[in-house]
Specification:
With 300 residues, this protein is an alpha/beta fold. The chain is 38% helix and 17% strand. Helix 2 runs parallel beside helix 3. The termini are close together.
Length: 300
Amino acid sequence: MALILANDGISAKAEQELKDLGHEVDAKKYQGDALLARLAEVDCVIVRSATKLRTPEVDAGAKGNLKLIIRGGVGVDNIDVDYAVSKGIEVRNTPCASSNAVAELALGHMLSLARHIGEANVTMRQGKWLKKQYSGIELSGKTLGLIGFGRIAKLLAQKCIALGMNIEFIATHDHGIDSDTCRQVDKACLLEESDFISIHVPFAGGKPMIGEEEIKRMKDGVYIINCARGGVIDEDALVDAIRSGKVAGAALDVFVNEPFDNDRIAECERISMTPHIGAATKEAQERIGDEIVDIIKEKF
């Protein structure tokens, strides 16, 4: 039997399955010194994106019985993976469970930007009828550039092909790419040719992948979507480009600081925003829970 801390929560179904297997599950939320103390007591900790497991947290777990860290989601940038492994703590994630949910959110943002759905929803509630102002564009016939071509990007590509879009991509890693319907290009070509650019890569720290210089190379009137990680886009450069008219609009589900606290972004009407809800569907959460249960079955 293992003592499991689900510090950012877990689906009720997965929690019950773990209990049925004889494990004890603590789904309370711990922070600061309370988190450090609890990590020293548990065998496994499950986190989402909210809980950060850096050196102090890993050290606290290593002093106790912590054997496994599970990230309920794809990115593990909130975990010091190398340090945890050096302390004998295994780190796992659930890479498949939320892919479709994130792809659908990215597509939803694309449609919202193209047809002014978010803006119109707000202004109509303010009593404004701006029909002429909200002339949009169709996705069909446009080029979508995908930065990264892993699970999420491929699913987004499939959905956009069905809508009549042309797909270009750059791959930062070899994902066994074999596609007759998507064209692999270099970064310069993608930036110059894409009508929509959607980012699907992790943020490793340092310089943003999309900054002022990259935006200058893009088409006038491009749309930029980021449902990957905050930090891959220079937020100030993005706002400046929208204000100047270079970028027609952007959609952000992730931010440099979370919870979100950027007034410049908040005041920019042509940015469609959601609070890091890429994986927040009932179906995705159940699949994440299923993968977590399978991982724990393997380990304990």
